[in-house]
Design a protein that fits this description.
Layout lengths: L18 H11 L3 H14 L3 H12 L5 H11 L3 H17 L4 H17 L3 H21 L1 H4 L2 H29 L1 H14 L3 E5 L5 E4 L1 H7 L3 H4 L14 H12 L4 E8 L5 E12 L5 E10 L1 H65 L8 H15 L1 H32 L8 E3 L1 H11 L1 H4 L3 E7 L5 E3 L1 H23 L6 E10 L2 E8 L29 H12 L3 E7 L3 E9 L27 E3 L1
Parallel strand pairs: 7-9, 11-13
Antiparallel strand pairs: 1-2, 1-5, 3-4, 4-5, 6-8, 9-10, 10-12, 11-12
Helix pairs in contact: 2-5, 2-9, 3-5, 3-7, 5-6, 6-9, 7-9, 9-10, 14-15, 14-16, 14-19, 16-17, 17-19, 19-20
């Protein structure tokens, strides 16, 4: 193969990408202004080290992974690998500085053609991207401004990973242009060997192709599936409305995303993350559909464990406060019982003296003196102070009853809060759930904030009550902490207001606080897993992420907030009264483009 020149052709005005295509690519990448800023900052931070990082990736790291080592060694011996590395330096720099620029895209396509010329297949280029990202992470970790705030590294790598996916598509397209036949075989092999299930149907939904992973996942042989519809693996646990939404989405030319509960041939249930898209020919005619199923049963199990761990962690965090709340009524019950015990002793002593008087007066005791017995009784009556006892003993008994009622209320609330999650949705009284949550969380807010409740009349809501309890607890505790940051030890008090109301076919729960508010740079990340601004040991970064998952994914509702720095934050939770089966709405994935984590602008309001 002749050594073709590696320089990219100059960009001309007449072949520049139109503005609408650049905008479309930006939407595809899901790059926002924060991402672009992060990428430019990374470019500035590691610009001088970029040649070193690229060279190490291609001449050291990638050569450790078997098949490409021999090929790269041959190309290195021919003196071409350094040219490729130099090309990649420019490409990675442009990736960071201008990921949606048309010149960048053209040069990236040229890199794909270069890889084709040296015989390096796309899958090894994908590996190089991952290795390069690791090198960038190491470089950032050594940079003073990033080392001081590891969160910046995570945010930067998140932005870089967005463009990597688009990178791969461009390189694959260019590679295919250079080696069409081999690329076609590679794509076919990749689909067949993919660890994710892939199937293709005609326009009626009749299966025409399944890859081996679909067979492995479902337990059906391809001969049992081809010519049938995906009903073969339906479990009957996914609502009719979800499948109606599926057909409506793909027939509209859009991609359907959801999590589905399927059933293997042997009857075992499993979870998949499903993506189903229309297939069109060169003329734009619909010719079928392609589906991708990723088995997420293990992930679902981990999510369940994580939610339970968060619940137990919350109970553990509140344990000291709950113990204090119980100890206070127990203490005055103990004091009251001690007082009643002493009083009863005095009364019994008086009764014994009066019994002696009765026996002497009745002639039943010939050895005693009636005057002495009367004097002893009078003395016992004076010591007992009957007037005081008649006034105080009933009050002590009332205090005992009140204290025991308070302990009973706390224990009942804690028991209902910690009740194991139910398998299916069931009608629940959310006002009572909120009252229980406020009871066990009182130690978190009672010293820094006054509580105001406006609980409207609500119908029974079909939901996972125990999981919503956790949502309410996270919101109330976060409100208390936000107020605590403002009032400190000054003795001042903030306010937490919890209200509920019916809003059409939904109910809305509002938790408002007069805390410090959420800064604008933090707001886009509040629902991201493991993101926290609290001091080490004060927060896991899971509370609001799990709340988002429970409300939006498990209940088909919405969770949003309105905040003003220095004035406070209000969270709004909307839940459908009839449960998710009453809504034809596929579940969103917070880690995918379009979810509230990747694109939270519609879920918040900052003033």
């Amino acid at each position: 193969m002749p050594d073709e020149p590696l320089a990219s052709s100059p960009a001309h005005a007449d072949d520049a990408l139109p503005a609408e295509e650049l905008a479309a690519r930006r939407r595809l990448l899901e790059l926002n202004d924060d991402d672009l800023r992060c990428l430019r900052e990374v470019a500035a931070a590691i610009g001088e080290r970029l040649p070193e990082l690229v060279h190490r990736t291609y001449t050291q790291d990638l050569m450790q992974y078997g098949p490409p080592a021999k090929q790269l060694s041959r190309v290195a011996g021919e003196g071409r690998l350094d040219k490729v590395a130099a090309k990649l330096v420019d490409a990675f720099r442009e990736q960071l500085e201008a990921p949606i620029d048309d010149n960048y895209t053209r040069r990236r396509a040229e890199i794909g053609r270069v890889h084709a010329r040296i015989g390096l297949e796309p899958k090894w280029y994908y590996g190089a991207l991952n290795l390069m990202q690791q090198r960038i992470a190491e470089a950032l970790a050594a940079h003073p401004s990033y080392a001081a705030d590891p969160t910046r590294i995570w945010v930067a790598l998140r932005a870089i990973s967005k463009v990597h996916a688009f990178d791969a598509m461009i390189v694959l397209d260019a590679y295919t242009e250079s080696t069409v036949g081999r690329a076609m075989r590679n794509v076919s092999t990749a689909v067949a060997q993919s660890p994710i299930g892939v199937f293709i149907t005609d326009t009626r939904g009749v299966i025409e192709y399944v890859n081996p992973h679909i067979e492995q996942m479902t337990g059906f042989a391809k001969e049992e599936l081809i010519g049938k519809t995906p009903k073969s693996w339906r479990s009957g646990l996914t609502s009719k409305e979800t499948y109606e939404a599926l057909w409506h989405t793909i027939m509209s030319g859009k991609v359907f995303n959801s999590e589905l509960r399927n059933k293997r041939k042997g009857g075992e249930l499993y979870w998949v993350r499903a993506r189903i898209a229309p297939l069109v020919n060169l003329h734009g005619d619909l010719v079928g559909f392609v589906g991708i199923h990723e088995d997420i049963s293990a992930q679902k199990g981990l999510e369940t464990q994580l939610r339970q761990s968060e619940r137990l962690a919350s109970v553990g965090t509140l344990a000291a406060g709950v113990a204090h709340e119980i100890n206070t009524p127990v203490q005055f019950v103990s004091d009251s019982i001690h007082f009643i015990g002493e009083s009863v002793g005095e009364v019994f002593s008086l009764l014994e003296r009066l019994r002696a008087v009765r026996r002497l007066a009745a002639g039943e005791d010939e050895h005693g003196s009636l005057p002495d017995a009367l004097a002893a009784a009078a003395d016992a009556e004076e010591r007992a102070d009957l007037g005081y006892l008649l006034d105080q003993v009933p009050k002590a008994l009332e205090r005992c009853a009140d204290g025991l009622q308070r302990v009973s209320s706390i224990v009942r609330s804690l028991k209902e809060f910690a009740h194991p999650p139910q398998r299916d949705m069931a009608p629940a009284d959310l006002n009572r759930a909120i009252d229980n949550t406020l009871t066990i969380a009182s130690a978190e807010y009672k010293y820094v904030a006054d509580l105001e409740k406006e609980l409207g009349e609500l119908p029974a809501v079909t939901c996972f009550a125990s999981e919503l309890n956790q949502v309410f607890l996270n919101l109330v505790v976060n409100a208390a902490h936000a107020i605590g940051e403002v009032v400190g030890k000054s003795g001042a008090r903030g306010k937490i207001k919890v209200s509920t109301r019916v809003d059409g076919d939904h109910i809305e729960i509002v938790v408002a606080d007069t805390g410090s508010g959420i800064p604008e740079h933090v707001a886009p990340h509040v629902f991201e897993p493991f993101y926290t601004t609290k001091a080490l040991g004060k927060g896991t970064g899971q509370g609001l992420a799990l709340a988002w998952s429970v409300v939006t994914q498990k209940h088909g509702g919405t969770l949003r907030f309105d905040t003003k720095v220095g004035a406070g934050t209000t969270f709004f939770v909307r839940i459908p009264i009839a449960g998710v089966r009453g809504k034809a709405q596929p579940a969103a994935d917070p880690l995918e483009p379009g979810g509230a984590i990747a694109s939270p602008a519609g879920e918040r309001s900052i003033r």
